[in-house]
């Protein structure tokens, strides 16, 4: 009887990396890089902020992990964590989809906002998370970002937004498009108060988010190889009836064409932001 138990567990446990196929990667323990297809330990990859050791591919980093990696320990104070998403257009199955993403991600929406310090420099921050409804911008995402910017304006703090978005949230129709203007107005008031705004684009930053607050930073940064653009490649190719270059809509392409200030490797994220905050510090920190 015991012999059978051992036999069974042995078969499941001893999977060697060398012989693993796609669906053999033990979930949670090891991860396969989608670019170079090499297999790594999840824990080691997480310690490297989800950047592949072999090819430097930047995999998605969830909002709280990014905040942990960037902000000084225990300095982050979250704002509006409990703002609830509603279904203003009664879009079929929308509530179920939101509930499913809540359970999957432990987030209440596709953005986490608040303030804290980075190497001692105070800043307001919003970090979008593409796991939640593709990081799409609905009324709650727009409202949370707006409130966080207003909080930063009141408290004389710079503001950083990490974008990761599929665009406006289709289930909220025109109400999601309104968020583009709302967030931009809040950013304008923040700017009129003489405060610094850093837009930090991560993969992917598309649609209404790329067309509003993601592209209007005093300083615009992006992660390597991020897809950044308004409409998709196919739509543009069909419209202009021309083939687009392979690197079109990548962070590197935008940098080359003057639409970005710097492409920043994730391992340098904290250092680069610290330098910028230090340069613009008005003595409050
Ligand atoms: Zn790789």
TrEMBL record:
Main localization of the protein described in the UniProt heading: cytoplasm
EC number: 2.1.3.15
InterPro entries, per database record: AcCoA_carboxyl_beta (IPR034733), Acetyl_CoA_COase_Trfase_b_su (IPR000438), ClpP/crotonase-like_dom_sf (IPR029045), COA_CT_N (IPR011762), Znf-ACC (IPR041010)
Zinc finger (C4-type): 33-55
Subcellular location: Cytoplasm
Keyword hit for Transferase: yes
Entry keywords, A to Z: ATP-binding, Cytoplasm, Fatty acid biosynthesis, Fatty acid metabolism, Ligase, Lipid biosynthesis, Lipid metabolism, Metal-binding, Nucleotide-binding, Transferase, Zinc, Zinc-finger
Reactions mediated catalytically: N(6)-carboxybiotinyl-L-lysyl-[protein] + acetyl-CoA = N(6)-biotinyl-L-lysyl-[protein] + malonyl-CoA
Pathway linked to the protein: Lipid metabolism; malonyl-CoA biosynthesis; malonyl-CoA from acetyl-CoA: step 1/1
Origin: domain of life: Bacteria
Biological role: Component of the acetyl coenzyme A carboxylase (ACC) complex. Biotin carboxylase (BC) catalyzes the carboxylation of biotin on its carrier protein (BCCP) and then the CO(2) group is transferred by the transcarboxylase to acetyl-CoA to form malonyl-CoA.
HAMAP family: AcetylCoA_CT_beta
This protein's name: Acetyl-coenzyme A carboxylase carboxyl transferase subunit beta
Species name: Macrococcus armenti
């Amino acid at each position: 009887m015991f012999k059978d138990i051992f036999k069974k567990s042995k078969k499941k446990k001893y999977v060697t990396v060398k012989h693993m196929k796609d669906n053999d990667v033990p979930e949670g323990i090891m991860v396969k890089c989608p670019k170079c297809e090499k297999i790594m330990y999840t824990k080691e990859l997480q310690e490297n902020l989800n950047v592949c050791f072999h090819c430097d591919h930047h995999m998605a980093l969830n909002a709280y992990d990014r905040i942990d990696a960037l902000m000084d320990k225990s300095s982050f104070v979250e704002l509006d964590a409990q703002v609830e998403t509603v279904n203003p257009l009664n879009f079929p199955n929308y509530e179920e989809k939101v509930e499913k993403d809540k359970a999957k991600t432990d987030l209440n929406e596709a953005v986490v906002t608040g303030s804290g310090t980075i190497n001692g420099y105070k800043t307001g921050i919003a970090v979008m998370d593409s796991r939640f409804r593709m990081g799409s911008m609905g009324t709650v995402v727009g409202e949370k970002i707006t409130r966080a910017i207003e909080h930063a304006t009141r408290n004389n703090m710079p503001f950083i937004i990490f974008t990761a978005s599929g665009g406006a949230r289709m289930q909220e129709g025109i109400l999601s498009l309104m968020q583009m203007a709302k967030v931009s107005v809040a950013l304008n008031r923040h700017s009129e108060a003489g405060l610094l705004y850093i837009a930090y684009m991560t993969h992917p930053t598309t649609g209404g988010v790329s067309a509003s607050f993601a592209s209007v930073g005093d300083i615009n940064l992006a992660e390597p190889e991020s897809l950044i653009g308004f409409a998709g490649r196919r739509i543009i190719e069909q419209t202009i009836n021309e083939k687009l270059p392979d690197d079109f809509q990548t962070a590197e392409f935008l940098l080359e064409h003057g639409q970005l200030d710097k492409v920043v490797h994730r391992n340098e994220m904290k250092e680069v932001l610290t330098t910028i905050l230090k340069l613009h510090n008005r003595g409050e920190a």
